[in-house]
Design goal:
Elements: E1 3-9, E2 12-13, E3 26-27, H1 28-41, E4 43-44, H2 47-54, E5 65-71, H3 75-88, E6 92-95, H4 98-102, H5 108-118, H6 122-140, H7 145-152, H8 161-173, H9 176-190, H10 195-202, H11 206-214, E7 218-219, H12 234-251, E8 259-261, H13 269-277, E9 282-284, E10 291-292, E11 304-305
Parallel strand pairs: 1-5, 1-11, 2-3, 4-5, 5-6, 6-7, 8-9
Antiparallel strand pairs: 1-10
Helix pairs in contact: 5-8, 5-9, 6-8, 8-9, 12-13
Bound molecules: zinc ion (ZN).
Zinc ion (ZN) binds at residues 71-72, 222, 226, 263.
């Protein structure tokens, strides 16, 4: 059985002493430690090797292969990740949503991360959402506050119930225009009133992405607007994919062997059909597992989160999760 560990990263930065020390990010020193652990127990592979392994030629991979993936196109990736990977001669695969690069807008999900990092007590945000729901209940036909809280504020791997409620209410549950207006208000109140400026600090632009490519890194699609793609109608799915492919092409990424990374891990059969029709080689989900390459569907590969792996080379090797 050929196993493959794919690790998923988001923010990677020196948190201590930074402007947002409470941001749910991977501390840079822990990233260094994790790379040392990986160096000891795995062989880091390139995306091109994985495509060849899962293609018709089935080119074998080295023992204990591991692929490094970085979602959302943060400046963290060029400032902190690229130098560390380059010094080891390793490739990382990067998945920026096209709109944050092109339009210099801050994604709602990122606005929320920085709101949560800026407000120490999540109950303040829960109360803010409750008050807004009270005002808009009739207009949008909203359920009672406590009922929604009980329904959505549980089963999170990392967050307390209040934070889970705020995230889910403002990312998915409330009607789109309403929740966007709440996120915008919270962001300008607690984080920044200059979204363009903030976006320029947060996300890589085209020149940074070109530098990644020049350094031998891989760049794939993470959609355009960072939607839950399984929540869209087919035509909107097609537009998201085609817009992101046009963006990749402009960067100079080959369309022959392109890779999809589903925002929030969201996909459905309709989307997989669209990807197949456009020659997508691989798809990365957020299902938390080590992949078994003998049995997996190349378009729905599972990944581990960085928190599933040790952060130090001195930690004994452990098998984090069962394989699919
Ligand atoms: Zn993402």
């Amino acid at each position: 059985m050929q196993n493959l560990t794919i690790v998923m990263y988001h923010y990677v930065r020196p948190l201590a002493g930074s402007r947002y020390p409470e941001l749910k990010a991977l501390e840079l020193d822990n990233f260094r430690g994790q790379l040392a652990y990986i160096d000891k127990h795995h062989t880091v592979i390139d995306m091109e090797q994985l495509i060849a392994a899962l293609g018709p030629e089935a080119v074998p991979l080295p023992d204990n292969p591991l692929l490094l993936t970085f979602d959302d196109g943060y400046m963290d990736h060029i400032d902190h990740v690229l130098p560390l990977l380059s010094s080891r001669g390793w490739q990382g695969s990067f998945f920026p949503p096209a709109c944050s690069v092109i339009d210099r807008r801050v994604l709602d999900v990122n606005k929320l991360h920085f709101v949560l990092a800026s407000v120490a007590d999540p109950d303040i945000l829960v109360r803010y959402v409750f008050d807004a729901m009270d005002e808009a209940r009739e207009l949008h036909g909203l359920e009672p506050n406590e009922a929604m809280f009980a329904r959505i504020a549980h089963d999170s791997r990392y967050d307390d119930p209040g934070t889970t409620f705020v995230k889910r209410a403002l990312q998915r549950e409330l009607p789109e225009a309403f929740r966007k207006s709440l996120v915008d208000a919270l962001f300008s109140r607690h984080v920044s009133s200059d979204e363009q400026d903030f976006a320029a600090e947060l996300y890589m632009g085209e020149s940074e992405l070109t530098r990644l490519l020049d350094a031998g890194m891989f760049i794939g699609s993470h959609g355009c607007q960072h939607y839950w793609l399984n929540s869209l109608e087919r035509q909107a799915q097609i537009e998201e994919i085609d817009d992101s492919l046009a963006f990749l092409e402009r960067l100079g990424v080959s369309r022959k062997e392109w890779v999809m990374c589903y925002p929030y891990g969201g996909y459905d059969e309709s989307l997989l059909g669209i990807l197949r029709s456009r020659g997508c080689a691989l798809g990365l989900t957020t299902e938390v597992k080590v992949a078994n390459l003998d049995q997996c569907d190349p378009l729905t590969l599972p990944r581990l989160d960085t928190n599933d792996l040790p952060m130090s080379a001195s930690t004994p090797r452990r098998q984090p999760h069962i394989t699919v």
